[in-house]
Task: structure prediction
Amino acid sequence: MIKNKNFLGPSGTVVPTGEFWLLSLLGVALLFGVWTGVAVSGVMPKHFLPTPLDVALRLQELIVAPFAGFLYHQHMLASIQRFLMGWAIAVGIGVPLGLLMGWYRLLDEIVTPLFDAVRFVAPLAWVPLAALWFGTGIGGPLLIIFVGSFAPCLISAYRGARLVETRFVEAGQTLGASSAQIMRHVLIPGAFPSIIAGLRVSAGLGWQSLVGSELIVVGAGLGYLMVQGQGNISTTTVMAGMLGIGLVGFLIDVALRAAEAAVKRRWGMAT
Amino acid sequence: MRLSRQSIVMLVTLVTVLSVWWLSTTGLRLINPLRLPSPEDVGTAAWQIMTKGFAGGTLWVQALHSLQLVAKGFAVAIITGVPLGLLMGWSRRAEILLNPTFLLLRPIPALAWIPLAIVWFGLGDTGKIFTLWLTAFVPNVINTFTGVRQVDTVLIAAARTQGASTGQIIRHVVVPGAMPHIFTGLRLSLQASWTTLVAAELVGAFFGLGRVLNVAGQDIYPGMILVGMAAVAICGAATTWVLGHVERRVISWRPAL
Amino acid sequence: MSDIVFSAITKRFGDPKTGFLALDHIDLKVEEKEFVAVVGPSGCGKTTLMRMAAGLDFPSTGSVTVGGKEVERPGPDRSVVFQQFALLPWKTVRQNIGFGLMCKGTPRKEMDEAIAHYVELMGLQGHEESFPHMLSGGMQQRVAIARAYVMQPDVLLMDEPFGALDAQTRIIMQEELVRLARKNPRTVLFITHGVEEAVYLADRVVVMGKKPGRLLEVMDIKSHRKAENWEGMAIEEVMDLPTFVHLRSHVWKLLKSKDAGGTGDH
Result:
């Protein structure tokens, strides 16, 4: 007789493969079942809570017929493009600045109080100022995305630079490396794992900020599509927009996770 | 008293930034005041909102309104999210069953729920609390879950061999063991909550700091915009400080870093 | 009665028919109030054996009984001392020692007295309100041993309890354990890497080999200890005795032999 008793909680539980799939299927069925059930029951009016099928049909429609000026994937591309631009600026400024702050104490002492002073301003609170500076142009959303994703870039690069152990630097110096060589071969690779982890966090926050800024200021993009859907009380459109936002966010995260894992493998760190 | 090198650099930096700000606006009038308000403009705006009020209330009324919304959403998210995270962490079957829902919910930023919240609840407080709840709920569940899974199995085994029941293990081993992760979730979701609230109030609200920012933007009142931003930052910093204080009290057993 | 009986134990991990064979047909009896040490190379399944007696792991075939009753779950009648101490970091020394009593619902006064007794016995006075991280490894293991003894268990199961300690602390703790065992005899199953430790502490030493995990030899130590009165000597004196040296090298030879499946260096 085989005993399989669990007194140790999750780590002592082995769920057989068959049961795993059964439970997963049940989970999916539960999610869509409850959703559909509530939608069909009429507890909420149909135009407030559509069924999953309604959303899927609406999504199909949005792909072939323009809404709020563009087709669905055009909105999505507009969002992605805007996100990539804003995020690239944040990475391009945040990472080098963080590294330099990690290496030069004076710069650290100058920037840190300024950074601390604006750190707690929620990214979306920059919206009115962005409108003042850039009107309805592309600069507004870019600023919001920049503000949203800048902090993790700076902090992770700073921590990465500080974490490179002095003994590596000293080892490099005793071997006769110049400071440029030390920077290239010791400091930057040493900070890299921390930076790439920070990039993942910053991309997530940047994508969120993009959504927020699109709700408020722009004329295209998934967020804009949702606002227009909300204005027409077209819940299906709003939900279709949410799905697209979730999908892109998910893909960004998957890509950066893969990059992070690859870097850790290459540097021989435990994942 | 001698000042440290660090505080001297800090003072010099802040004084420099403030003087450059004053010179470029009031002093030399290099920047259009409609782009960047002068320190005096900000002072006037601050005085106005503190005494007479702006966008339907004084600074205290607006800030308190925002604060209580964040507090309510946060509280509901803790009450619902932490127990669910504990359940999913302790039971693999619960985890597998609920995983599809979280796979769908997790990548959707809370901000993306704002339009839906408006359709469902309108522009009042309920919709805001709903969005704030979602903002904090998902990180709370996920971090509590992670925390439970990272509790050292040998501690659970040791408690079992001393005759602890499942309830006693949850209470004395799992919850305290997961507490550092739970607080990580709280910290992350508190910052996200302020972002969500400001966004929700900018999209549409009757009161709150986001409303102040919105009206100031529409009126092209740069001084008030900066006052609104500063108020948001102070509220965010203050709540984070309170949370950090609570964390140090609750996790007093942890070795100092 | 509190003897531990392993009868015809096999343990496979993974598939019950083809999975890794961790233990192959183990028959072993630990008599009441006997101290048995198990030595063997890493991966010979000695810890699994202890976990089965604790009720934290179960054999694929065969049975484990303690005091004639089949082991079905962990329980306070069988206290375990873990290599990693396994103290609750968020509870003070006092709360850690009293945890089992609290779970049982022991009245406050009785609990305080029991804790005070073992705090004194293990030399932990003055540390009652400290958190584990504030103590050295040796002190933490004292707390873990006090926590095991306070339950007044019939059976003590120790899994390399001194493995994480430095050499000096280990010797102090070994002498401490001998003192405790004499004062308060229990049925003890002691798992260890250390050959000297096993020969010094145990009434009988069980030598195991790996691939698959199995018993190589069970050696009687108690008769030698009685005859030469080891308990009246300091640990370093015992370790210089010709009998001790002989017993120790016998275990070493067993562990190094092809039979053991290990390289002998551990």
